C-alpha cells in the first residue's frame, strides 16, 4: 500500500487545483446528504484536506 500512497501524494502535488475541486465537490455532496446539519464540520474537514494537498486551498 505504500507505493499506492506515494503515487496518490505525487498526483495531489501535480494536480492540486483538481484535487481541491474534488474535495470541495465531495464536501458539498456530504453537506447536501446531511441536510446542512454538519456544514461547519464538513467545511473544516474540506479546508484541512485541501491544506494537506499540494499548495493548499486553490478553490474559493
Descriptors:
mainly alpha; 0% strand; Antitoxin; Antitoxin_Rv0909/MT0933; elongated
Sum this structure up briefly.
This protein is mostly helical and 60 residues long. The chain is built from three helices and no strands.
What does this structure look like?
Helix 2 packs antiparallel against helix 3 (39-51). The protein has helices at 2-14, 16-33, 39-51. It has a domain at 19-59. The termini are far apart. The chain has 60 residues and is mainly α. The protein is 73% helix and 0% strand.
List the SSEs and their pairings.
Elements: H1 2-14, H2 16-33, H3 39-51
What is the number of helical segments per DSSP (H or I, 4+ residues)?
Answer: 3
What portion of residues belong to β-strands? under 5%
Largest sheet entry: none
Give the distance, in angstroms, between the N- and C-terminal Cα atoms: 32 Å
* Helical coverage, percent range: over 70%
Query: What value does the Rg take, in angstroms?
Result: 12 Å
Pairing-aware structural class of the strands and helices? mainly alpha
- Gross geometry: elongated
User: What ranges have pLDDT less than 50 throughout 5 or more consecutive residues?
Assistant: none
SSE topology string:
HHH
Q: How many β-strand runs?
A: 0
Average pLDDT: 87
Pfam family, one: MT0933_antitox
Biased composition (Basic and acidic residues): 1-23, 30-60
Region (Disordered): 1-60
InterPro entries: Antitoxin_Rv0909/MT0933
Amino acid at each position: 500500500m505504500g507505493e499506492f500512497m506515494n503515487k496518490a501524494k505525487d498526483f495531489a502535488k501535480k494536480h492540486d487545483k483538481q484535487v481541491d475541486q474534488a474535495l470541495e465537490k465531495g464536501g458539498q455532496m456530504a453537506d447536501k446528504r446531511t441536510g446542512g446539519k454538519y456544514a461547519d464540520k464538513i467545511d473544516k474537514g474540506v479546508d484541512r484536506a485541501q491544506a494537506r494537498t499540494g499548495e493548499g486551498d486553490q478553490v474559493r
